[in-house]
Amino acid sequence: MRLLLVEDDDHVAAALSAILARHGFAVTHARNGEEALQAVLPTAQGDRPSYGVILLDLGLPDQDGYQVCARVRKLTTTPVIMVTARSDVRSRIHGLNLGADDYVVKPYDTGELLARIHAVARRSPGPADDAAGPAGSPGSAEAGVLRLGAVAVELPTRRVSVDGEPVALTRKEFDLLALLAQRPGVVFRREQIISEVWQTSWEGTGRTLEVHVASLRSKLRMPALIETVRGVGYRLVAPAA
Ligand code: CA
C-alpha cells in the first residue's frame, strides 16, 4: 500500500518511514502543506496518485494542518489520519468535521498507529474508486456519523437523534456523548472526561459530570446507554441495532 506521510520533522519522518516500510508500506514523504497538496494532485498526464492512506501531522511550518486536511479532502477520498499533540475532544471533532477519518494523538504507540492505518484502509473504497471524487464516494453521507443502535451522533452538525427523532443537547452534553461514543465499550476515567470536555482539572467541578451523565441518560431515554464504572469513570454500552 502506498502511504503519504506529511511530517515536517525529518527525524520523526525517517523513523516512522522505516517502521512503515518494514510493514510493507511504500512511503512518500511531504515536508509541508504545499508538498502534501502537490502530492495528491493529478499529474500532468492526468494520473491520480493512489495512496491507500494519508498520515497528516497537524503542526506544519507553512499552513494550518486543519486547512491542509480540508483541501486534501476536496482533492481525494483517500482516508486521512490526523496526527497531533492536541488531544482535547474539540480539536478531534474539528478534525473529523474537516473530513479526517481518524485522529492519533502524540506520543502514540506504533502498534496502535499501524492498526488504525489498516482499519481506515479497510473501510475505504480504495484508490481505484477515487476518480469518482469525494461527492460520489459510497458512504460519504455517513462521514462523521457515529451510530449506536438507535442513537445517531452527527459530529459535523453536532446533531443527535434517537430512532430518527432529534434530541436537543447542550454543548457539553454533546461533547460528552461524542467523546464516549467514539470508543464504545472503552472506560473513560472521570479525570480524563473532565479534562477533555471541560478542559479543566478535576478540582472545583463538583458533580458537573454526574449531572451531565444523568441528563444524557434521561434525554436519550436510554438509562443503560452510559454505564457507571464505580470508582473509575464511565463507558458507553453500544446497544444492539
Ligand atoms: Ca510537526
From TrEMBL:
- Identify the DNA-binding region of this protein by residue numbers: 143-238
One Pfam family name is: Trans_reg_C
Q: Which Gene3D superfamilies match?
A: 3.40.50.2300, 6.10.250.690, Winged helix-like DNA-binding domain superfamily/Winged helix DNA-binding domain
Q: Which domain of life is it from?
A: Bacteria
Specify the species. Streptomyces filamentosus
**Record lineage:** Bacteria, Bacillati, Actinomycetota, Actinomycetes, Kitasatosporales
The segment(s) forming the Response regulatory domain are 2-121
Q: Name one GO molecular function term.
A: phosphorelay response regulator activity
Q: What is this protein called?
A: Sensory transduction protein RegX3
Domain OmpR/PhoB-type, first and last residues per copy? 143-238
Residue positions, PTM 4-aspartylphosphate:
D57
The GO biological-process annotations, alphabetized, read as: regulation of DNA-templated transcription
> Gene Ontology terms, cellular component aspect?
cytosol; protein-DNA complex
Key words, A-Z = DNA-binding, Phosphoprotein, Transcription, Transcription regulation, Two-component regulatory system
